[in-house]
Amino acid sequence: MTEFLKISGINYSYGNDKITSGSFCLKNINADITGNDFTAVIGKNGSGKSTLIRLLAGINLPDSGDINFRGKNILSYGKKELAGLISYLPQSSDLMHFDSEVKDFLMLGRFPYKSFSDFRYSSNDKEIVMNSVKITGIEDLLNKKMNELSGGQRQKALLTLSLVQLGTEDDLKGKLLIADEPLTHLDINHQIEIMNLLKKLNENNLTVIIVIHDLNLALKYSNKSILLRHGGIVKFADTKDVITEEMIKEHFFIDSKILNYEKNFFINYLPN
Question: What pTM was estimated for this model as a whole?
Answer without folding.
Answer: 0.92
